[in-house]
Amino acid sequence: MHHRYDVLVVGAGGAGLMAALYAAKGNVSVACISKLYPTRSHTGAAQGGVGAALGNIQEDHWEWHMYDTIKGGDYLTDQDAAEIFAKDVIEAVYELEHMGLPFSRTEEGKIAQRKFGGHTRDFGKAAVERSCYAKDRTGHMILQTLYQQNVKEGTMFFNEFHVLDLIIENGRCSGVVAYELSTGEIHTFHAKAVILAAGGYGRIFKITSNALTLTGDLMSIYYRKGLPLEDMEFYQFHPTGLTKLGILVTEGIRGEGGILRNKDGERFMERYAPTLKDLAPRDIVSRSIYTEIREGRGVGPDKDAVNIDLTHLPRDVIENKLSEITDLSRTYLGLDPVKDLVPIQPTAHYAMGGIPTTIDGECIADDSGSLIEGLYAAGEQACVSLHGANRLGTNSLGDLIVFGRRSGINAAKYARHVELAEMPENPEVESRALIENLKNADGSENAARIRKELQETMMNNVGIFRNGPDMEKQVEILRELRARYQHVNVQDPSQRFNSELIEALELGFMLDCAEAMTHSALNRTESRGAHDREDFHTRDDVNWLKHSMAYKDFARPGNVRIGYKPVVFKDSGDGEYESLTTYTPAEAAEFKFPPKPRTF
Q: H helices of 135-224, where?
């Protein structure tokens, strides 16, 4: 089946819906493809809020937010992206309010704001109330609001379609190939511009806050085209997931005054981050929790968790401002945060890396910055490098609305001025072969078994703490798992809603993402942000102040070729940014925010 649109968006989470909405406002025909019904997208799991320097509770400025973003990203953040973001997110929040998003309110009727880890006033002097929230259901409210607005603007939705291939020829993208879950039919979508916004790949880890659908499909497809994935070594572990389950416990729980305690009842974050304590950036809190567990101060039957303590907070704060996580604790753990300590542990949460893009969402094809015409990306799928080596809390939802909007606007602008590209002959041939190979394989391997081994070994060998020998071991494990994957046998012959087939397809995508991540992490011989190496403890700005670009090595299967892209780091004084990969002490003194060890 064949479809034609001016702009095609893949993914219906916050970034995809924002991109589709602003493309539709650009007077072009827009379609959105999603693995799920849009309001079930993973953005709905985001609880805490959107960081924006509104200053509704206390003085705040976008420059302070930009500083926190760059410092939180351990100076790998591209500063042009951080400046655009810190300015634009203020306007974007007010736009969402005007669309009808039901933000929580102050007594004066303004958008309420609360503290969040890593957000400070006056360039790091103290915590600031910057997170704009709707109780602890902010992401859910964003999805509902943006979906309604897209319906109003006439966006066409293709729900429960699984994208299998990008159609790229002669440096231009002209559409995608997708599998319809309800019929088993292959569809070709022909478009002038395509926006990728299908989320991350957290399911490669055993303990994760990510939905089952977040398997890195489009990252893998991009990688299989010989195109790069940027900064894949940087993966954020959120410090607080419900123990064993990984279900997210919002950082807002600490913003409201929650305290992390070890088995002795000690507020241990005072030892690791004496200024911000429990509100230090996520990488610091995650490593602190893991250190407590390693040193024998964990809680629970396996001593692999710590407690979050809310019992000192007023009941109305817990029941009203933190209602969702309170319900989750009662439902899944049988614990009431009003009177019980709740055990938590770090959970794989967010990919800082992904498909490299410009600040306008255009997809980058190589180290030199060449672009793929007509192809854009936004959200966790993309790496505009707003987040650098470690994303600041609340900046994910801000990223979705700011760069989703920019991608939609620019894709529509492009689509208005070009004709549809010629489609290659038989664009579906590779996708059909992919499905037939899985359905007709005569092997005895089981996708679920391989997936379990992938998740466990990635958690153990490329998790919060990393070292060379473990990651070298993981490289060999991935080669073995990939060889076994060639013999996966899909036994279900069904055409309609064949979940076994979909899981087998997703496993192939996950193996690609795990491969790119492991090789990138092994290659980066320093510790920075969320990438913490026990054999290279220090940050090395002289050699590693640069972005990694991972390419699939077709000449040597199972290997990855690593290239590099400079960090956009220095303001030249006229509003233009120049890229630097290394610096001298004299140059460092001129930087907008000089690199220095982080203290909190």
A: 138-153, 217-224
- State the Cα–Cα distance between residues 141 and 133, nearest whole angstrom: 10
**Can you tell me whether residue 488 is helix, strand or coil?**
strand
Residues in the chain: 600
d(C-alpha 198, C-alpha 214), whole Å:
8
CATH number given to 429-536+543-551: 1.20.58.100
Active-site residue identified among 254, 282, 451, 598: 282
- Residue keyed to tokens 């400079």: 566
CB atoms within 10 A of CB 30: 30
Q: What is the pLDDT of residue 573?
A: 59
Q: Strand locations in 170-234, DSSP E?
A: 172-180, 186-196, 229-230
Dihedral sign computed on CA atoms, order 389, 392, 393, 394:
negative
Q: Which residue's entry shows tokens 């729980």? A: 253
For 562-588, the pLDDT digits (tens) are: 999 999 986 655 556 555 444 344 443
Contacts of 588 (CB under 8 A, 6+ apart): 594, 595
Place of tokens 């997809």: 363
Under DSSP, the state recorded for 277 is G
Whole-number Å distance between alpha carbons of 375 and 357: 10
Q: What is the pLDDT of residues 146-200, one digit of tens each?
A: 999 999 999 999 999 999 999 999 999 999 999 999 999 999 999 999 999 999 9
CB 307 within 8 A of CB 300: no
Locate all alpha helices (DSSP H) within 317-467, ordered by sequence: 323-328, 395-415, 429-440, 447-461
The most distant pair of C-alpha atoms in the chain lies apart, rounded to whole Å, by: 67
Task: Report pLDDT digits (tens) over 518-550.
Answer: 999 999 999 999 999 999 999 999 999 999 999
Say how far residue 160 (Cα) sits from the centre of its chain: 21
Does the annotation count 533 as an active-site position? no
How far is the C-alpha of 349 from the C-alpha of 243, rounded, in Å?
14
Report how far residue 528's alpha carbon sits from residue 538's, in angstroms, rounded to the nearest whole number. Answer: 8
Q: Map out the domains of the chain as residue ranges.
A: 238-348, 429-536+543-551
In 3D space, the residue among 35, 64, 34 whose CA is nearest the CA of residue 52 turns out to be: 64
Query: Which residue bears the tokens 């300590």?
Result: 341
CATH number for the region 238-348 comes to: 3.90.700.10
The string of pLDDT tens digits covering residues 207-221 is: 999 999 999 999 999
Q: Which two tokens stand for residue 450?
A: 């391989």
User: pTM for the whole thing?
Assistant: 0.90
Measured between alpha carbons, how far is 276 from 118 in angstroms, rounded to an integer?
8
pLDDT at 54: 95
Q: Which residues contact 501 (CB under 8 A, 6 or more apart)?
A: 435, 438, 439, 490, 492
Tally Cβ neighbours within 10 Å of residue 276: 23
Q: How many CB atoms lie within 10 A of CB 211?
A: 20
